[in-house]
Design a protein that fits this description.
single chain, alpha/beta, five-stranded parallel sheet, binds nicotinamide-adenine-dinucleotide
Length: 472
């Protein structure tokens, strides 16, 4: 008998969204085989032919954004204001991928008959996380299809209905059969798909632990490209000359957006010593004022965590803050699981050695540390296994510039929080956050293989033959 995934609404557990058959190894192999069979025709359709289908998908998802937003709320618990923003990013991805993304892999002609072209890799596996169940897999799928690959998509096992919704829209756009396959399931399905020999690459967004497991599953397949977008332990730096009102608002947003469940959420805040008490008080007031509740309510800032299992994991890590030497400030404690309140944890010393201080929590909570100045702040940000996002608040652009290129993250913002990012730029991190294959506009680079050519229609020129080589 086939196993099924039951998808429920984290804000209302009695609301069952649907049941989805779990793909076993044979079902994964069949999906990949359909993808491989569809590949030559999709590749040979050319960019113009593919664009017609992809533009239709853009049109349909643009018209049905609100329906998608409501499904995201229902299945992930994300507040409706954020789900609307996410749904809007789905059609927007098409312009970036067909435009700036394809410019990165346009044929290069360096003269003298020397050229490079870029061809699709084949059949790629896309893994989605639960926290952006539409936008993030879409951020791999659209560029992969634009470049001429076929895709086997495994949505998060927490958000299979959003994955099915996306597939339906592609079908409506008349994407040929086999060009996009969806398989559902958790770790076992994911392992079967990542490790399957017929998959030419794995485009993954999720946690470090899973990224690591995928690398392990593909150790003997060195030519399989892995684009790993993983977790973060992101940092905000507030220097003494910062605009405090701005820094407080942006830091609170960075801590608590998506109930702290964004890869770019801030969980470490370094404040120059003269400002730390005032900053901590104002940040705590702002976090305490966030409206938490029904994520479908237009006035709600944040909904629940994605699941009871997530809540249990977060509670365990939260309980270790004191053991790590921090002073906990819980800002709401009256909420039913899996809802959680925001919290701050103050540390007097800058040492970040405890797992509480180093591991990703994925909840609306941050540690606050004093720093003596700019150089110490740079070292503090870099004292992390992750390297995804950082933000610096100062009125002095020169002080911010000191961080550029010295802070080891893929994203570094000035007077904007860690969660701000442009879809027109690369998006990714280093260390445990990623393997230097950023998504965003640069996704086209990992979706293609360069091919170099020396080309001539001039016939043989005997003058160019080396000495000692017989002339014709
Ligand atoms: P996850 O790693 O649990 O799951 C991601 C995907 O991998 C899902 O489809 C899941 O079913 C699958 N999976 C789980 N275990 C697997 C295994 N052993 N082998 C193969 N596949 C497996 O991540 P999540 O909880 O859905 O998402 C949250 C994580 O994603 C956080 O760590 C967050 O920081 C990260 N994230 C990163 C980015 C980024 O762009 N860097 C963006 C969003 C989220």
């Amino acid at each position: 008998m086939t196993d099924v995934l039951e998808s429920t609404n984290p804000a209302r557990p009695e609301d069952v969204i649907g049941e989805f058959p779990v793909a076993d190894a044979a079902a994964v192999a069949a999906a990949v085989a359909r993808g491989r069979a569809a590949f030559p025709a999709w590749r040979d359709l050319g960019l113009d032919g593919r664009s017609d289908v992809i533009r239709r998908f853009q049109e349909i998802t643009s018209q049905r954004k609100d329906e998608l937003a409501r499904l995201i709320v229902r299945e992930s618990g994300k507040a409706i204001w954020e789900a609307r923003a996410e749904a809007g990013l789905v059609p927007a991805k098409v312009d970036v991928s067909l435009g700036a993304g394809m410019e990165l892999v346009a044929a290069q002609d360096v003269g003298g008959g020397a050229r490079a072209t870029y061809f699709p890799r084949g059949t790629l596996a896309v893994f989605g996380p639960f926290n952006f169940p539409a936008h993030l897999p879409n951020g791999h799928i659209v560029p992969a299809l634009v470049c001429g690959n076929t895709v086997v998509f495994k949505p998060s096992d927490q958000t299979p209905a959003v994955g099915e919704w996306m597939l339906e829209r592609w079908r409506e756009a008349e994407l040929p059969d086999g060009v996009l396959e969806v398989v559902h399931g958790g770790a076992a399905t994911g392992q079967a798909l990542a490790g399957y020999a017929g998959v030419d690459g794995v485009l993954f967004t999720g946690s470090y632990a899973t990224g690591r497991a995928i690398r392990e599953a593909t150790l003997d397949q060195p030519s399989k490209i892995l684009a790993l977008e993983m977790g973060g332990k992101n940092a905000v730096v507030v220097l003494a000359d910062a605009d405090v009102e701005l820094a407080v608002a942006e830091t609170a947003l960075s801590i608590a957006a998506s109930t702290g469940q964004r890869c770019t959420c801030a969980s470490r805040v370094f404040v120059e010593t003269p400002l730390i008490d005032e900053f901590a008080e104002r940040l705590a007031d702002t976090l305490a004022g966030l409206r938490i509740g029904d994520p479908m309510d237009e006035h709600t800032f944040m909904g629940p965590l994605v699941s009871q299992a997530s809540f249990d994991r977060v509670e365990k890590l939260r309980a270790t803050a004191r053991e790590a030497g921090g002073e906990r400030i819980d800002l709401r404690v009256d909420l039913p699981a899996p809802f959680v309140g925001p919290a701050l944890v103050r540390f007097d010393a800058l040492r970040q050695s405890h797992s509480y201080q180093r591991d990703e929590m994925f909840a609306p909570e941050a540690a606050l540390y004093p720093v003596a100045g700019l150089e110490q702040a740079i070292d503090a940000v870099n004292d992390s296994d992750y390297g995804l996002a950082a933000a610096v608040f100062t009125r002095d652009r020169g002080r911010y510039e000191r961080f550029v290129g010295r802070v080891r993250t893929g994203i570094l913002n000035w007077n904007k929080g860690t969660i701000g990012a442009s879809g027109k730029l690369p998006f990714g991190g280093i260390g445990k956050s990623g393997n230097d294959r950023p998504a965003g506009v640069t996704a086209s680079l990992y979706c293609t293989v360069p091919q170099a050519h020396l080309e001539s229609d001039a016939g043989l020129d005997p003058a160019l033959l080396p000495p000692g080589f017989p002339k014709p």
